[in-house]
């Protein structure tokens, strides 16, 4: 790499992906070897979802472009149309910013749109969290992003081997660990008493953190599934802090169920939590319930038991703290009781040790961009 700062662009569409990348993005920005720009789209720009673009700015990062989309209509057709709008906006943003590299994370449509735009503009793409499985629409989107990407920073050795079997060059796939684990324990610095006081809960009674997002293929069942989960939690005398879902198809059903129970004295429903508060709740609660990737990846670093529901995280690598159920087949009360009686787990996490940022920053600085880098082809 020359003395000229390498221009890095990251696209962010949700509070979730930004929370996972915040520490890494701040480290990139603070490093004189880089010039960082962030493109914000999706839920970040919606009042309904908390206008979380403000969190990007509050973190000291520059939002170089904003791509508004219509996310209020939570249907599969709306998701597909938004992908097209995001793609158009990404082309315009990237033509202006002219980055040397584009970073995308995970499996959402915003990332797929960014990758499609970048590869057509001859911009090398780095994909974080590729090679993982989930079994819903997220999985083919994730793999599509991987096939468009030139370099891969993966969370686990299994993910690396899967990408190599998919035809990616082995010398372009690096195990960095999950960036969302970096600084996680230090970030969870709000104690139980303060958290409970903020929502008028009793700190001496058990707590559940509830994060349930819709699944495209199961959108019609979302409301009844959430209702069944909330009923079971309340029968176990849990105090429930619930977050509103993302904008994917079926989110209306999840919202309706949460709003129906919102009057209950043991339930608090929030539109959004800053990441420090969110991970602090994850650290102190007796159980995390739902289908969020944070339960799969981050909760194990606190030893927090997780009741993972349905297919959204199907086939992902598991830590010992995960209990999987399908609502139609499970006695939710009995499963919850077993989890609560068993208590916390050892803090072992297959997704990494919290040192991904240094590895990612060093790789971004050292990776060579050669003429053949952009010539994507399966190696088999």
TrEMBL record:
<dbReference type="GO" id="GO:0102388">
    <property type="term" value="F:UDP-N,N'-diacetylbacillosamine 2-epimerase activity"/>
</dbReference>
<dbReference type="GO" id="GO:0006047">
    <property type="term" value="P:UDP-N-acetylglucosamine metabolic process"/>
</dbReference>
<dbReference type="InterPro" id="IPR003331">
    <property type="entry name" value="UDP_GlcNAc_Epimerase_2_dom"/>
</dbReference>
<dbReference type="InterPro" id="IPR020004">
    <property type="entry name" value="UDP-GlcNAc_Epase"/>
</dbReference>
<keyword id="KW-0326">Glycosidase</keyword>
<protein>
    <submittedName>
        <fullName>UDP-N,N'-diacetylbacillosamine 2-epimerase (Hydrolyzing)</fullName>
        <ecNumber>3.2.1.184</ecNumber>
    </submittedName>
</protein>
<dbReference type="Pfam" id="PF02350">
    <property type="entry name" value="Epimerase_2"/>
</dbReference>
<feature type="domain" description="UDP-N-acetylglucosamine 2-epimerase">
    <location>
        <begin position="26"/>
        <end position="364"/>
    </location>
</feature>
<keyword id="KW-0378">Hydrolase</keyword>
<dbReference type="InterPro" id="IPR029767">
    <property type="entry name" value="WecB-like"/>
</dbReference>
